[in-house]
Design brief:
heterodimer, A: 372 residues, alpha+beta, six-stranded antiparallel β-sheet, six-stranded mixed β-sheet, 28% helix, B: 220 residues, alpha/beta, Molybdenum Cofactor Biosythetic Enzyme, Chain A, five-stranded mixed β-sheet, 5 strands
């Protein structure tokens, strides 16, 4: 488990330290304090800077630009400049993510380096417009760290972008090393039906299915079974929530999960995601989305039970009072035992997140003290 | 929820303490609302008891609240506990977040700063003697009520002979005060009400050290 995180130069943070992290960690703080950036930092670190994770981080934020090459097949590049504190790309721009108090220490650095003319020719060929003249400056992302990142150098386009093609380019050095820790990231918008079915196919009919069913039962006791729906129709325009059916006690016919509301979908997504991140990390942005305040306690019980069972470390963000204070019900169960639950408040201008221990979370909930 | 978000807070033990402080400040601080706590410069919250206020992590958790800037605490030195011992417990709870706390409680009350918070402590009656709120309030009895106050003291002594159960010593002053208040018009006012009606004089010079501590702590 990661017990501390140190961020340098990533997005809005010149420096941020989080310590005292446990099994379940809830990040709070005002809008724009950087909570989502902290989740991204975990994502990049645990995936060892994997370009796919990098791509997802930038795609989610909409940090992309379209390259008009062939209007019939527009290419969209992701824009890496905003990852660096100050939003600027120049040689030497750098950010570092590290954990401490762990053996061995893990760290990851992204730095902007210059591509040598030789590398430029290898990667891009000789540009007929500038043949013979001094080639323009082109950049690359240099990724280093411990454990060694899978990919160590990614060439950037002239605008400072990364194309999905370049991620698969044979010119990118790939290191064969042990798989990075499995990481699942749930953004505010839940996974689509297609994505969820893909995950579901790995756990259906396995013992893990029971956990997922238990998750849904927290919200609706009458749910008896869940199944993925195989469509025999041509695959036209799948709605975002298509694909799952639920059998409820007392109903003869199953109904689509999508007609049962947002909360059900979120619970299903989280339960499935936990089974897929065994030994790794689950990141959930705005974990209270779609859940009524009365469902919060049930949600935390599920998360904690599943995280312990699957040895997953959970980092989540929220703005909701009920979400933060219902976490206290997990802290009350055994006052002395360290269950590994913390709340961390990120505050603009502060280098250290403000941590709340289990006892402090319990007191805050009992005495109506604001933690956000 | 509003109360726990106020930038300037005072935690007191019970209702009587709260009302007494509020009425005292109402008489001295312009801008303190005549009724209620909306727009009051300082929000006075109940901690219920000393043991709850000094419970492990409680003061630390309150101090971490992001909108809170100044936290004051007012406690009694009763139950046979010396002010210095109360201060030691208080310091143990707060020194992690406010490292600059002095080893001893100053006679004029404690005020200490950390990088982004200010904290204060007053132990009734005067940070030195044992006692409580009523020990402090007895000095606010108006001079013309001297004979009635003496009678209250004498009556309580008499009552002991008839089987009155109040224990020495910190209960005695409470018995005196509430006996005195039971003979006012209307009878049985709370100490706070007595202050608002000047039955207990908020402008007495005996109240000045506490007022000075309060105004300095909260910058008003």
């Amino acid at each position: 488990m990661i017990s501390s995180l140190h961020i340098n130069g990533y997005r809005g943070f010149q420096r941020l330290d989080l310590s005292g992290l446990g099994r379940v960690n809830l990040l709070v703080g005002k809008n724009n304090s950087g909570k989502t950036s902290v989740l991204e930092a975990f994502h990049l670190l645990t995936s060892r800077g994997d370009p796919t994770a990098l791509w997802q981080v930038l795609w989610r934020r909409g940090e992309r630009f379209q390259i008009e090459q062939d209007p019939r097949r527009p290419q969209i590049d992701v824009d890496v400049s905003h990852l660096f504190n100050g939003h600027e790309l120049h040689v030497g721009s750098k950010f570092k993510l590290a954990t401490k108090n762990e053996t061995p220490e893990k760290w990851l650095t992204f730095e902007v380096a210059e591509l040598s003319p030789k590398e430029q020719t290898e990667l891009f060929g000789v540009d007929p417009d500038t043949a013979g003249s001094v080639p323009s400056q082109r950049f690359a992302l240099q990724i280093s760290g411990r454990p060694t990142p899978a990919v160590q150098r990614i060439a950037l386009s002239r605008q400072g972008g990364v194309s999905s093609e370049s991620l698969n380019s044979p010119h990118i050095l790939r290191h064969r090393s042990a798989d990075p820790a499995p990481t699942q990231y749930i953004a505010t918008e839940s996974l689509t039906g297609t994505e969820l079915i893909a995950l579901w196919s790995k756990i259906q009919l396995s013992p893990h299915e029971e956990l997922v069913l238990a998750a849904l039962k927290f919200l609706d006791e009458d749910i008896e079974r869940i199944a993925a729906q195989v469509s025999t129709q041509p695959y036209y325009n799948p709605t975002p929530r298509a694909g799952f059916i639920i059998k409820r006690k007392g109903s003869e016919y199953p109904i689509p999960l999508g007609s049962m509301g947002d909360g059900m979908w979120r619970m299903l997504t989280m339960a499935v995601a936990i089974t897929q991140s065994k030994g790794g990390v689950l990141l959930v942005d705005e974990i209270d989305t779609g859940l009524h305040y009365t469902a919060m306690e049930a949600m935390w019980r599920l998360i904690f039970r599943a995280a312990t069972e699957f040895e997953v470390q959970v980092f989540a963000t929220t703005h909701s009072y009920d979400c933060v204070h219902s976490l206290a019900t997990l802290c009350i169960d055994s006052n002395d035992a360290k269950n590994g639950i913390t709340v961390q408040r990120i505050e603009a201008g502060k280098n250290k997140a403000i941590p709340y221990s289990e006892n402090e979370i319990r007191l805050a909930a009992e005495r109506n003290i604001e933690m956000r | 929820m509003d109360d726990s978000n106020a930038p300037r807070q005072l935690i007191v033990e019970g209702q009587d303490d709260r009302q007494a402080v509020v009425e005292l400040m109402r008489a001295h601080i312009p801008g303190w609302p005549k009724q209620g706590k909306l727009n009051a410069p300082v929000i006075v919250n109940l901690g219920n008891s000393v043991s709850e206020i000094l419970a492990t992590d409680y003061l630390k958790t309150i101090l971490k609240t992001s909108s809170l800037k100044i936290l004051g605490v007012m406690l009694d030195a009763d139950g046979g506990v010396k002010p210095s011992a109360r201060y030691d417990s208080f310091r143990a709870q707060c020194e992690e977040l406010v490292p600059s706390l002095p080893k001893e409680l100053p006679a004029e009350g404690l005020i200490a700063d950390s990088a982004d918070k200010r904290i204060g402590l007053w132990i009734m009656p005067d940070n030195v003697k044992e006692g409580g709120l009523e020990t402090f309030l007895q000095h606010l009895v108006q001079p013309e009520d001297g004979p009635l106050w003496d009678h209250a003291i004498a009556s309580c002594l008499e009552a002991k002979k008839c089987g009155a159960k109040h224990r020495e010593p910190h209960h005695v002053i409470k018995a005196n005060m509430y006996s005195f208040l039971s003979w006012q018009d209307p009878p049985g006012q709370s100490p706070g009400n007595a202050i608002s009606r000047s039955v207990l004089d908020p402008h007495s010079s005996s109240a000045r050290p506490f007022l000075t501590w309060f105004k300095t702590l909260y910058g008003i």
